[in-house]
Amino acid sequence: MNDAKRQEGRPLGFDTRQIHAGVAPDPVTGSILTPIYQTTTYVQESVDQYLAKGYSYSRSGNPTVRALEVKLADLEGGADCTCYGTGMAALQAVYLAFLNAGDHAIVSDVVYGGTYRLSTKVFSRFGVQFSFVDTSQPDAVRRALRPNTRLVLTETPANPTLKLTDIAAVSAIAREAGILHAVDNTFLTPYYQRPLELGADLVVHSTTKYFDGHNATVGGAVVARTAELDRALRFIQNATGMIMAPHGAWLTLQGCKTLSVRLERQSANALAIARFLEAHPQVATVCYPGLESFPQRELAMRQASGFGAMLWFEVRGGVAAGKALMDRIRVWSLAENLGSVESLITHPVTMTHADVEEAERRRVGISDGLVRLSVGMEDATDLIGALDAALAGLGA
Ligand SMILES: *Cc1c(COP(=O)(O)O)cnc(C)c1O
Question: Fewest CB within 10 A of the end CB: N or C in the chain?
Answer without folding.
Answer: C
